[in-house]
Amino acid sequence: MMTSTDIRNSFINYFKKNQHEHVPSSSLIPENDPTLLFANAGMNQFKNTFLGLEPRSYTRAVTVQKCVRAGGKHNDLDNVGFTARHHTFFEMLGNFSFGDYFKKEAIRLAWNFLTNELQIPKDKLYVTVFETDDEAAEIWHQQEGVPKDRIFRFGEKDNFWRMGDVGPCGPCSEIFFDHGPQYGTIADPYKSIAAGEDRYIEIWNLVFMQFYEEAPGKRTSLPKPSVDTGAGFERLVAAVQGRHNNYKTDIFKAIMEKGLSFFSSQSLEYFHGIEDRCLGDKEFAGQADTKQALEQLSALRVLADHCRAVSFLIADGALPSNEGRGYVLRRIMRRAIRYGRKLSTQHSFLSAMSEVLIAQMSEFYPELTTRKSHILSTIRDEEARFLQTLDNGTQILTDEIKKLKSQNKNIISGETLFKLYDTYGFPLDLTALMAAEEGLQVDEAAFEKQMQAAKEKAKASWKGKSLQTDEKHLIELSQKFSKTPTKFVGYDSLESSAYVLALSDGTQEVDSLSTGQTGLLILDQTPFYAEGGGQVGDHGAIRSEKSEVRVLNCTKHADVFLHQIEVVSGQLKNREQVTAAVEASERRQTTSNHSATHLMHKALRVVLGDHVSQAGSLVDSTRTRFDFTHNKPLSSEEIRKIEELVNDEIAKANPVSAEVMPHKEALDKGAMALFGEKYGDQVRVLTMGSFSCELCGGTHVKNTAEIRAFKIISESGVSSGVRRVEAITGSHAIQYLMQNTEELLAARQLTGVPADKTLSQWAEERRNEIKDLHKQIKKAQSNQINIDDLLKAAQTFNTAAGQAQLVFADLPIDDRDVLSQISDQLKNKIQKGVVITVGTGDASHPVIISVSKDLNPQLKAGDLLKDFAQAMGGKGGGRPDFAQGAVPDRSKLSQAYDLISKKILQ
Fold first, then answer.
1. Spatial CA neighbour of 253 closest among 301, 214, 188
2. Do residues 599 and 704 touch, judged by C-beta distance below 8 A?
3. How many CA atoms lie within 13 A of 772 on its CB side?
4. Residue 257: which residues within 8 A CB-CB, separation 6 or more?
5. CATH of 4-15+34-246, one of 3.40.50.410, 3.30.930.10, 3.40.50.1820, 3.30.365.10
6. Is the Zinc keyword given for this protein (predicted)?
7. Alpha-carbon Rg of the chain, whole angstroms?
8. Is 594 annotated as a binding residue?
9. Is 696 marked within a binding site?
10. Which distant-in-sequence residues (6+ apart) come within 8 Å of 534 by Cβ?
11. CATH architecture designation of domain 786-905
12. 469-582 in CATH: which number?
């Protein structure tokens, strides 16, 4: 039987033999595509190619694309683990023709691969075509010999594809695999497929990009029709391996067995056997132990699927957070962790199963090995946080149920349901089950409204949109000159003569730009660095005989540099000679910061460990900002060591060399590839002595001594598992250090710090003195209050625990700690009873209620305080024996006391 690895490799090799270029999977995080949350189809990386905006060096391609569907339009997250084919992460096999072959070849390639390469019996396959696509139907029948009664026609909903409201579109043809009559109830295959039964499963879709749709229903034929196909890898493996359920294939087996080893002595086949028997034995399916086994199997499947999505998303740069992509990742992680907790409270399933996944798939996806430590540490950190909130969530639900019962209410609100779902990982069905056990219901409609709002939040930063006119113009403008890319001379010179190739006002090409106008400029060569690799674009000036132009920024597309300009004076014309000059002082400081970033990156790895890798950067003339993977704040000692290492390398005055070489050769040399960057076949390797070696296309100093000095000015957290360091170099660092030294000397003189002590030692001593003084003041305030006088007004009342006293103290004190001390003294004196102390503040007034623990069965401090504070327009809460709050309206103090005393003394 072919393994999943065999099938994947067979697919790639088959299409390579048929003259297809093997193109590696793009990242799950789409590059420069705001329309997508995650890569969700094989054609994503070829979108601009199909639109005619980005030519390729090949006309045929084959890919195995990583995909995630867990948010936005494609969101089946809650079904994952409970059905045979729902996944958050999956692989899409695809072959593509960019104006090369069309229907005949596409159909021949697909059918031949399935029936000959994979040996799938032809009588197991059915095909569908668009209802008016006679051409495709005829090819299937005449060319491949598929009987007409196995070729079905469907309408636009099923068999017509569009890239958007406007753009390429065309009919599609799908191939279905028959898993057998036991998985369906409808004998007729056409009706079964139309009904969406589980018997006939789509395993391949061939999209024929035949038309361009200018408006709904208005189509013109494309001059070069193209093909985009996609075969679901997991579905195809299931068909080849004779498994109806994707989770029963070797893709998931080792991962699930790892999870199973933590909680059961039974084999995976045992659980699958129970599931299979349940399909035909409803009575067996209803047994308690069987039901438990099926729940455990579903939990295992959730974990097996989610560990794949989590590992690949983190490897591609996503991190758990509360918005956008990070929000979706966190939901997937927390869902997996919760199901792991249902299986066992003693083990970490997600990280262990992810480790098996990494070992299993690293040969084809090496990024999993490269970022293994980061993946696992991120999972463990998120798991540790979430398990605490999960326990808290259980307590919150329990408290909410008690509260509703005390108020004679029987419905849990949508707001509470969603809070439990989103923050604490409780699905609606679990909350509903726990509520039903207590005789309560849930407001499911209100919950769904909250869910919809959350989905909008998750995709808020990634709203789908068509290519904007300006954006399209810039791409087209760049493509026009892509065959003669801009020559960058800025590594060696900050000034050069150049020839104007094109001018644009931002929406269209123009012949000239005049005083006050802004636009874009393309030169044949330029000293201006184009924004990339974390480094900002250069600023400067461009001069011609009759114009003065300010360069505001420089970017690039397809190796064509786009200078964003403003004409200061005169008129700049197309096809004229100019002089381009970079702002020298800005470039000098930027290169200093960029070179220091490389040294800092290496120093971080030396001090903190090899798990450190780049998670983002920004380098300009004022500072360097570097985000890196690390799960806790840097200590003062760690920062000192990093600064020391970097400044040592600066002091060594090592030469900085740049060398262009093949990508593989650079990696073999030990060059570090910065995460998130795209590299071509030839790369630029930057070496700084024996300390740092990285791939980088940015501008740098010639010698580390030019950096002069390095100083970290801030360290903070960006998101879970990512820290941010900001640093300065050169003249900025010297000025910073000089200013701080002057301020330090002035502070020593002003405060009279002895020469044998540091300012921090002296400050710590003063702080301790102030603490002692505060304690003495509080003690003095407390001693001024006569406890015995307060007790004279105490009221006696009867309780189940015997006689008790109610003491009320209205005091001119604003310090909550002093009030608390007095409250404790009063309670100790009466031993049994309730003490209410009210202080005096500015905008609000502190309130403390203390109840002796033997009275808690009938009197709770938190409940009393809520009523007391509410009567005075305030709020508060706490434990049954101690509660505190604040009130703004002191004029109602007597009314509040009367209210509480009646409750206590009744």
1. 301
2. yes
3. 6
4. 268
5. 3.30.930.10
6. yes
7. 35
8. yes
9. yes
10. 594, 597, 616, 617, 618, 619, 674, 698
11. Roll (3.10)
12. 2.40.30.130
Largest separation between any pair of C-alpha atoms in the chain = 108
CA nearest neighbour of 501 among 550, 567, 558, 574: 574
Going by C-beta distance under 8 Å and a sequence separation of 6 or more, which residues neighbour residue 219? 169, 211, 212, 213
Three-state SS annotation for 192-232: HHHHCCCCEEEEEEEEEEEEEEEECCEEEEEEEEEEEEEEE
What residues form DSSP beta bridges with 21? 61
Place of tokens 């307590």: 395
> Helices 372-406 and 324-343: crossing angle, nearest 10°?
70
d(CA 674, CA 84): 39
Residue 724 Ramachandran class (φ > 0 left, ψ -120 to 50 alpha, else beta): beta
| Cα–Cα distance for residue pair 307/27, rounded to 1 Å | 17
C-alpha span between 775 and 779 (Å, rounded): 6
Q: Which residues contact 553 (CB under 8 A, 6 or more apart)?
A: 531, 536, 537, 539, 563, 564
User: Does residue 173 sit in helix, strand or coil?
Assistant: strand
Beta bridge partners of 201: 177
Nearest residue to 357 (alpha-carbon basis) of 379, 384, 339:
379
- What is the predicted pLDDT for the residue at 455? 65
- Rounded Cα distance, 397 and 529, in Å: 57
Q: Give the β-pairing of 882-887 and 845-851.
A: antiparallel
Kindly report the average pLDDT of the chain as a whole number: 88
700 in a known ligand binding site: yes
Where do runs of H (alpha helix) occur along 241-371? 250-260, 268-280, 282-285, 288-315, 324-343, 349-361, 367-370
- Reading phi first (left if > 0) and then psi (alpha if -120 to 50, else beta), residue 721 is in left
Domain ranges of the chain: 4-15+34-246, 249-462, 469-582, 587-739, 753-784, 786-905
The annotation status of 554 as a binding-site residue, yes or no, is no
Which residue is listed with tokens 């005091």?
811
Residue type, 177: F
3-state secondary structure of 470: helix
Alpha carbon distance 479, 556 (integer Å): 11
What distance lies between CA 122 and its chain's CA centroid? 43
Residue 680 tokens read as: 């071509």
- Contact (Cβ atoms closer than 8 angstroms) between residue 573 and residue 511: yes
End-to-end Cα distance, the chain: 81
Supply the DSSP string of 342-400, one letter for each residue: HH-SS--HHHHHHHHHHHHHTTT-THHHHTHHHHHHHHHHHHHHHHHHHHHHHHHHHHH
**What number of other Cβ atoms are within 10 A of residue 162's Cβ?**
16
Ordered mean pLDDT values, 10 residues apiece, the chain (906 residues):
95 97 91 74 84 83 93 67 90 95 96 96 96 96 95 94 81 96 91 92 95 81 90 96 94 96 91 84 79 91 96 90 82 89 87 96 93 88 80 80 88 88 71 80 89 65 44 80 90 95 92 94 96 93 94 90 95 95 96 97 93 87 92 93 97 94 83 64 89 93 96 88 92 92 84 80 81 70 77 88 90 86 90 92 88 89 90 87 90 89 84
Residues contacting 659, CB < 8 A, separation 6+ = 684, 685, 687
State residue 97 phi and psi, 5-degree precision. -125, 120
**CA of residue 727 relative to chain centroid, distance:** 26
The model carries a pTM of 0.68
If you classify domain 587-739 with CATH, what class do you get? alpha beta
Which helix (H) or strand (E) segment holds residue 639: the answer is helix 636-651
Count CB-CB contacts under 10 A for residue 510.
16
Q: Are β-strands 795-799 and 802-810 bridged in parallel, bridged antiparallel, or unpaired? A: antiparallel
